[in-house]
Amino acid sequence: MTSLFNNSPGIGPPLRLSLKAQVTDGNLYCITVAMKRERGIQQPGFLLALHFLALIVWSLPGARALDNGLAMTPTMGWLHWERFMCNVDCQEEPDSCVSEKLFMQMAELMESDGWKDVGYEYLCIDDCWMAPKRDSKGRLQADPKRFPSGIQGLANYVHSKGLKLGIYADVGNKTCAGFPGSFGYYDIDAKTFADWGVDLLKFDGCHCDSIEHLENGYKHMSLALNRTGRSIVYSCEWPLYMWRFHEPNYTAIRQYCNHWRNFDDVCDSWQSIKNILDWTSSNQKRIVDIAGPGGWNDPDMLVIGNFGLSWDQQVTQMALWAIMAAPLLMSNDLRYISPQAKALLQDKDVIAINQDPLGKQGYRLRKEDNIEVWERPLSELAWAVAMVNLQEIGGPRFYTISIASLGQGMACIPDCIITQLLPVKRKLGFYQWTSDLKVQINPTAKGVS
Ligand code: GAL
């Protein structure tokens, strides 16, 4: 490994440096402006101009966000669906059925095992929590056997741990798993959730019979939640269902939702992660600029710590979810998670990129010869860059990129410090605009560890 520090930047003719960094798999880098951060301001005029330009470019008014003051950075927490699905058999599988016991155990661990401390705050129930029928007043009720304390009791418990509680409902006549839908009951359901002390609603879109029903339902529930006066993050699947008819109106969606699913459900497989990344990059012109504080594209749950992804693939999911400014909702079993997966999910530097206050979603910059380069602008003129080797045959591959091609030419003017964050943190040192960065990236084939 060669890392290089040049302490006479900006003097003399441009030097073309080739730096070798032996780094592996779904690599993530953070590029900071060296002049500003490390050596004080040497060319104030230039830096000021750059800063000014950056402010103009990056603060172009996006679409108006839902005006509830929530999700100013992507939501972080835990959501039961991918790992526990609709397991309602507490007789046979008491430890993995959808029940208050499961959520209480997760709440305890979120508090005791450092999850809350790094930002995972929302503990979210997905489908299959309900009793099959509403009560005599038309209110939803939790299955009494599996949730004997009711949702309110669970919310109190979750709040006592310093966490927030999320719940699930559906804009249509039934939830996807066939439990009572909210159609015709939006106001009652919003009030019920607020009365129980719920802090987030995931609103699904199954069993909806028309586009109007879908659109009006999502809007109606947003307004109903706001009218309760309680702060409730509103997580939508509106565009995912809308795509079946025509391209969604993302400007409208951002006005009503704090985050929104665009694409298929994540599964515990590399194919699923690749499909999500492909869909996102193919549609980046439509969806990247719409994201920002208060409203985010949601590529679905983190499946790190489960069964289907190799280590390199887990690193890749974490790196890319940070670049995409995605909600970080883990779906795994915090009781049995490996120390390695836990450390990855709790990586503070990567979380800081995901939660960067500038709130700009990243995008795929380049794909060539099965290598993808993604980048994301960060606050304080820094950039995050992720590289993925999608080749599923062969060993680690070298890839060289010119620094000048990153960050729309502005990631490293005239020089910068590059720190590798994943798969392991390492200072790569000082670079100039004219430098090359040479990295080694593991393939994402299964079984690499
Ligand atoms: C799907 C949704 C999943 C999960 C499931 C529950 O439509 O996309 O994330 O909520 O329904 O039935």
UniProtKB/TrEMBL annotation:
A Pfam family of this chain: Melibiase_2
A GO biological process held by the record: glycoside catabolic process
Cellular-component GO terms for this entry: extracellular region; lysosome; membrane
Entry keyword set: Disulfide bond, Glycoprotein, Glycosidase, Hydrolase, Lipid metabolism, Lysosome, Signal
Keyword Lipoprotein on entry: no
EC number(s) given by UniProt: 3.2.1.-
GO MF annotations in UniProt: alpha-galactosidase activity
CDD domains assigned: GH27
EC main group: hydrolase
Reaction catalyzed: a globoside Gb3Cer (d18:1(4E)) + H2O = a beta-D-Gal-(1->4)-beta-D-Glc-(1<->1)-Cer(d18:1(4E)) + D-galactose; a globoside Gb3Cer + H2O = a beta-D-galactosyl-(1->4)-beta-D-glucosyl-(1<->1)-ceramide + D-galactose; Hydrolysis of terminal, non-reducing alpha-D-galactose residues in alpha-D-galactosides, including galactose oligosaccharides, galactomannans and galactolipids
Location(s) in or outside the cell: Lysosome
Domain named Alpha galactosidase A C-terminal: residues: 359-444
Family annotation (InterPro entries): Aldolase_TIM, GH, Glyco_hydro_27, Glyco_hydro_27/36_CS, Glyco_hydro_b, Melibiase/NAGA_C
Record function comment: Catalyzes the hydrolysis of glycosphingolipids and participates in their degradation in the lysosome.
PANTHER family documented for this protein: ALPHA-GALACTOSIDASE A (PTHR11452:SF14), ALPHA-GALACTOSIDASE/ALPHA-N-ACETYLGALACTOSAMINIDASE (PTHR11452)
Family: Belongs to the glycosyl hydrolase 27 family.
Assembly and interaction partners: Homodimer.
Protein name: Alpha-galactosidase
Gene name, Swiss-Prot/TrEMBL: GLA
